[in-house]
Design a protein that fits this description.
heterodimer; A: about 210 residues; Beta Polymerase, domain 2; 8 strands; B: about 375 residues; alpha+beta; three-stranded antiparallel beta sheet; globular
Chain lengths: ~210, ~375
C-alpha cells in the first residue's frame, strides 16, 4: 500500500528543493554560493585506453566497443555475437578466472533494450573488469557456464527477472519465482504492484497477494 | 550442472528421490532440496529456492537512496550491519564522497562485531545440526553481548540500520569503547572454550572431516567466496584485496584451510572470529576524533553513472552494483549475495555423501535464506 503512495509523495518533494547542496542551517545560505554542490566532484565516465583494451581491440577488432572508466572502474562493451570468444580469451589469456557477478539492466528507452553485465575478477592480477553486452528484446545470448560454472544460477536469475534467454544453458528455468509465473519483474514495464493474478488465485487460493 | 531434472529422469531400480524442506529444522530457513539417492548415498541434488523472495531489487528502484537503506538490512538478517556497510559505501562511491575517519573506524568496529555475531549463529546452529547440543547455548550468550552493544548504540538489535550515507547518524555512546574492550577480552577465552568442545571431539571430527570437499579450482569456478573459498586454500579477502572502511589501518591475518572440507571451514571461521576481535581491539584504541557525518545534501542525487562496491561480509563477497540516472532513486540496484552464490556449490559438495552429511553441508555453507532469495 505504501508502495502506491510513495512515488507521488516524492515528486512534490523533489520539485520543492531544486538541487540545493543541502545546507541545513539558513545561516549557511550565504556560504552556499561559493561552495559548489557535490555534483562536479562526482566522478563521471572518462575514456579508457590501457594496454589491456588495446590488446583486446587488436585481437577482436570491432567486436570490442567503447571502453571507459566510471568511478575508476573499467567497463568494456563487447559485441553480442563474439561474447563467448572474448570471455574465453579473457579467462585463459588475461586470467580473469573469477566471474563475480552477472546481472542485467533494462534500458527500455534504447533501441537495444537490455544490457547484460559480466563482472570479472582476476586473482593473479587483483583487478576487476566489467564486460557489457547490449541486446534487443528478442535476441539471445550464449551462456558462459562452460567458462565459469558460477554463471549457471546467475544466468537463471537474469532469465527469471528479465526474460533474457541464454542459449546452451544446461538448465534454463526460473529460480526465484515459481515455474508457472508469467512476466519478468525487473523489467521496467513491470509495475511494482503487478503480479501474476492467475497464478496467485490458482496456487494460493486468494484474490490478491497485495 | 547440478540439476538432474527429476521429472525427466528415469530412476534406476535402487534409486529414490527424497525431498527435504522447505520446512525442515536443518535447512536454516525455507530451503528445499531434492536429493536423488542410491541407497543412502546422494548421487544428485537440486536446490529449490525463492520461498522468501520479496523483490528487494525492485523495491530499490522505487525508493530513494536513503529510503532503501533499511531494506538491505533485511536481506542477510543475521548480519545487518555488514549489509548496511556495503550499501552506504557503494552509494558514497557513487556520489564521490568519503565518510570521515571517525565514522570509518566505528563502522569497522561494528562490522567486525557483526562478523563475530554472525559466525556465532553459524557455529551454534551448525553444531546443533550435527548433534552437539552444548555450543549453541554458549554462542548465543556471547552473541547477546554483541547485540546489547548494538542496541545501546542505535536502539536495534537485529535490523540495525546503523550507518547513514556519508557517515553515522549517531555518535558512539559514553562507555562504548569500554563495552567493546570488555567483550573482546572476554571473547578470546570463549573461542578457546568452543574449540575445547569441538576441535578435538571425535564425533565432530568424524562428522566434518572429508565431508563436502571443495577443491580450490572448483571453488573459484563456482564463485565461492568468504570462508568457503579460504578453507579451500585460496588466500583471498576483500578487506585485503580492496580495503574499505578503515581496514588498511589494522593488522590481521587471513586464515586459510588446506582440504576444503567442512572441518577446515569450521577452523577458518573460528580463526576469523579471533582475528575480528584483534581488529576491534586495535580499532577501539585508535578511534580518531572529529565529525561522524560528511557534508552531503539532504537530497541524494548521484551523477549519472554506475558503481560496483563489495565488502567482505561474514558469508563472503557482498557486492552492490548501483546504476544512477541522476535522479533521487537508483535506476537499478543489484545485490550480489554471497549466500546465493555459495549455495550453488552445494551440489558439488554433497555428491557421494550420505543423507546425514547433507545436514552438515548445509550448515557449513552458512546460508541465510533471506539473502539467497532477496
Amino acid at each position: 500500500m505504501t508502495d502506491e503512495k510513495n512515488p507521488q509523495r516524492q515528486k512534490p518533494n523533489e520539485t520543492k528543493r531544486p538541487e540545493t547542496p543541502g545546507e541545513e542551517k539558513p545561516a549557511a545560505a550565504a556560504k552556499a554560493a561559493p561552495t559548489p554542490p557535490p555534483k562536479p566532484k562526482g566522478p563521471g565516465p572518462e575514456p579508457l585506453d590501457n594496454e589491456q583494451v588495446r590488446r583486446l581491440r587488436a585481437r577482436f577488432g570491432d567486436a570490442v566497443g567503447e571502453a571507459y572508466l566510471d568511478r575508476q572502474q573499467a567497463i568494456v562493451f563487447v559485441a553480442r555475437d563474439r561474447l563467448l570468444e572474448v570471455c574465453d580469451h579473457l579467462k585463459t589469456a588475461e586470467r580473469f578466472d573469477f566471474l563475480t557477478d552477472l546481472t542485467a539492466v533494462d534500458r527500455y528507452a534504447d533501441e537495444k533494450r537490455f544490457e547484460v553485465i559480466y563482472n570479472l575478477y582476476s586473482f593473479p592480477r587483483n583487478e576487476r573488469l566489467r564486460l557489457k553486452v547490449r541486446l534487443a528484446e528478442q535476441e539471445t545470448l550464449p551462456s558462459v557456464t562452460s567458462i565459469w560454472g558460477v554463471a549457471n544460477w546467475l544466468e537463471r536469475e537474469v532469465y527469471d527477472m528479465f526474460g533474457i534467454v541464454f542459449t546452451a544453458h544446461p538448465n534454463l528455468k526460473r529460480i526465484l519465482l515459481p515455474d508457472g509465473w508469467k512476466g519478468h519483474p525487473l523489467r521496467k514495464d513491470y509495475d511494482i504492484l503487478q503480479q501474476d493474478a492467475d497464478w496467485v488465485r490458482e496456487n494460493l487460493g486468494i484474490e490478491s497477494g497485495q | 550442472m547440478g540439476e538432474f531434472g527429476i521429472t525427466q529422469t528415469v530412476l534406476g531400480a535402487d534409486e529414490i528421490v527424497l525431498n527435504m524442506g522447505p520446512q525442515h529444522p536443518a535447512t536454516h530457513g525455507v530451503l528445499r532440496v531434492k536429493l536423488k539417492l542410491d541407497g543412502e548415498k546422494v548421487i544428485g541434488s537440486e536446490c529449490i529456492i525463492g520461498y522468501l523472495h520479496r523483490g528487494v531489487e525492485k523495491i530499490g528502484e522505487n525508493r530513494s537512496y536513503m529510503q532503501f537503506a533499511p531494506y538491505v538490512d533485511r536481506t542477510d538478517y543475521v548480519a545487518a550491519v555488514s549489509n548496511g556497510l556495503g550499501y552506504v559505501e557503494a552509494v558514497e562511491k557513487l556520489l564521490g564522497i568519503e565518510a570521515p575517519p571517525r565514522a570509518r573506524w566505528v563502522r569497522t568496529i561494528l562490522a567486525e562485531l557483526q562478523r563475530i555475531a554472525s559466525h556465532l549463529v553459524w557455529l551454534g546452529t551448525h553444531a546443533l545440526d550435527i548433534g552437539a547440543m552444548t555450543p549453541v547455548f554458549y554462542t548465543f550468550r556471547e552473541r547477546e553481548e554483541i547485540l546489547k552493544i548494538f542496541e545501546r548504540y542505535c536502539g536495534a538489535r537485529l535490523t540495525t540500520h546503523a550507518f547513514r550515507i556519508g557517515g553515522l547518524q549517531y555518535e558512539i555512546y559514553d562507555g562504548f569503547e569500554e563495552d567493546v574492550k570488555t567483550f573482546c577480552r572476554d571473547f578470546a577465552k570463549r573461542v578457546g572454550e568452543y574449540e575445547e568442545l569441538l576441535t578435538g571431539n571425535r564425533i565432530w571430527l568424524q562428522r566434518t572431516k572429508k565431508v563436502g570437499v571443495l577443491t580450490p579450482q572448483q571453488a573459484i569456478d563456482l564463485g565461492a567466496t568468504g570462508p568457503i573459498l579460504r578453507a579451500s586454500g585460496v588466500k583471498w579477502d576483500i578487506r585485503k584485496a580492496f580495503p574499505y572502511a578503515a581496514y588498511e589501518q589494522f593488522e590481521f591475518d587471513i586464515p586459510v584451510g588446506e582440504n576444503g572440507d567442512t572441518f577446515d571451514r569450521y577452523l577458518v571461521r573460528m580463526e576469523e572470529m579471533r582475528q575480528a576481535s584483534r581488529i576491534i581491539l586495535q580499532a577501539v584504541e585508535s578511534i580518531p576524533s572529529g565529525p561522524v557525518m560528511a557534508r552531503i545534501g539532504k537530497m541524494i542525487k548521484p551523477p549519472p553513472g554506475e558503481v560496483y562496491h563489495s565488502i567482505e561480509a561474514p558469508k563472503g563477497e557482498l557486492g552492490y552494483y548501483i546504476v544512477s540516472d541522476g535522479s533521487t532513486q537508483p535506476y537499478r540496484v543489484r545485490i550480489r549475495p554471497p549466500s546465493f552464490v555459495n549455495l550453488q556449490t552445494f551440489d558439488t559438495m554433497v555428491r557421494g555423501h550420505l543423507v546425514a552429511d547433507v545436514v552438515a553441508i548445509i550448515g557449513t555453507l552458512d546460508i541465510i535464506l533471506g539473502e539467497v532469495d532477496r
